[in-house]
Amino acid sequence: xxxxxxxxxPLESINERSSVAVLQHYIHDMVVRRGFDKETPRDALLLFVxxxxxxxxxxxxxxxxxxxxxxxxxxxxxxxxxADVFIYLLDLANLLEISLFHALHEKEQKNEKRSWS
Length: 117
Fold this sequence. Notes:
By secondary structure, this protein is an all-alpha fold. About 60% of the residues lie in helices and about 0% in strands. Helix 2 runs antiparallel to helix 3.
């Protein structure tokens, strides 16, 4: 007999208040579930860079920078492309066994000691 919790979508396990660790865990589970768990860090980095390129293209179109005026549409793909970049960043961190929270925290400790002009 299936428990009611077993029938929930995995997406229901995250929300706006989810920690970075929870998001990393969710992405790990989705990578395994979708059969992408054989990718190497190199593969994930290449896919990440590709998504950054797609984000740059979406931003260029959104800003109307060197676009065909006949084809220009107010690009609403920015959110989707940002999400793709974030997903691959989380995946890459998982593959490298890096806690993004700890990496961010350590980096910000160093940044706090720097002088910014």
